[in-house]
Specification:
alpha+beta; 2 domains; six-stranded mixed beta sheet; 24% strand; elongated
């Protein structure tokens, strides 16, 4: 092998390993810099480049380089393993199927959407980017017959948010001081008692990464102050598992349903491009409950896949 080729392989291996280190660093970064926040969305892809470093260094029999690249790969795997291991257990309360959906204003096909709600026996539904027209279209498609209880704050373009439920809703709240609408309501679920349901939609970091980080922090404060009983949160968080700001939300009494169930990387956005969805920014969180299964569902006309989680809530305390 010529010296030029060897130098080229070493440069490639070193660069690939360096990119992998960057991906790991982004996973742990708490910076609100727009560039770093956006880059963190792709942290797993950056981490995977360290595999190229391992192969290239090994091919060159560069033991020190291969060893360093292996350490990077091992660290990267350690950051992602929780998504695949799962730790859901059997609860002793009722099973509730929840769905989170971003409708792209009124772009989602209402009939196809309601068909999914019906086919999957959705009991609690949270919706983002809900317009008044979408509310009317979904009503005509039969959503209000399937989920007769609702608390809605529709708006223009992305601001609207809504909650639908088969269970009666009370104690409705719209939280002030956010760019988009953030809601909660209490669902009276037989066997579980009062269950707080939240529908969230913090701004995307492209709007302002500082505002995005602040809204995530404030939303975390809201759910941490929720009543002690079971709670369900659905939302387009505009954040992935690799954003430390999102993981802070699930470091207390709330857990990410996908992580609980070991569902892995559930990518939900974007679905309106020539390429498949790349990042998972939609999430369902649960407190005093366990997710048995979580999956994504295609929504024709929307730019997100929906999330569906089968949750086993804790039984109401007597």
């Amino acid at each position: 092998m010529s010296k030029v080729v060897r130098v080229g392989f070493n440069v490639l291996a070193g660069f690939a390993t360096f990119v992998g280190v960057g991906g790991v660093a982004l996973h742990f970064s708490r910076s609100s810099s727009r560039i770093l926040v956006l880059a963190a969305s792709g942290a797993p892809y950056l981490m995977s480049s360290a595999l190229v470093g391992v192969v290239a260094f090994a091919a060159m029999r560069h033991r020190a380089g291969a060893g360093a690249a292996i350490v990077v790969v091992a660290t990267a795997i350690g950051t992602q393993v929780p998504l695949y291991v799962g730790h859901s257990g059997d609860g002793d309360g009722p099973t509730v199927v929840a769905m989170q959906a971003n409708l792209l204003f009124d772009g989602a096909d209402p009939t196809a959407f309601v068909d999914q709600v019906r086919a999957r026996n959705i009991a609690v539904l949270t919706v983002d980017e809900l317009t008044r027209k979408a509310v009317e279209d979904l009503g005509r498609a039969g959503l209000d017959q399937l989920l007769p209880h609702r608390y809605l704050a529709p708006g223009k373009t992305a601001s609207g948010t809504g909650i639908w439920s088969i269970y009666p809703l009370s104690e409705t709240v719209e939280y002030d001081g956010f760019v988009l609408n953030q809601l909660s309501a209490t669902a009276n679920i037989p066997g579980a008692g009062p269950v707080t349901v939240y529908a969230f939609h913090p701004v995307p970091p492209v709007y302002s990464s500082t505002v995005w980080a602040d809204e995530l922090s404030r939303l975390r404060d809201i759910i941490e102050r929720s009543p002690a009983g079971p709670a369900i949160v659905g939302g387009d968080f505009n954040a992935t598992y690799d954003h430390a700001q999102f993981r802070a939300m699930v470091s207390g009494r709330f857990e990410d349903a996908a992580e609980q169930s070991g569902a892995g990387h559930l990518v939900t956005y974007p679905t309106d491009k020539l390429w498949p969805p790349l990042v998972g920014i939609d999430h369902i969180l649960v407190a005093r409950g366990r997710a048995a299964a979580v999956e994504t569902v295609g929504l024709p006309g929307a730019d997100h896949r929906a999330l569906v989680a089968r949750l086993r809530l804790d039984r109401e305390q007597s």
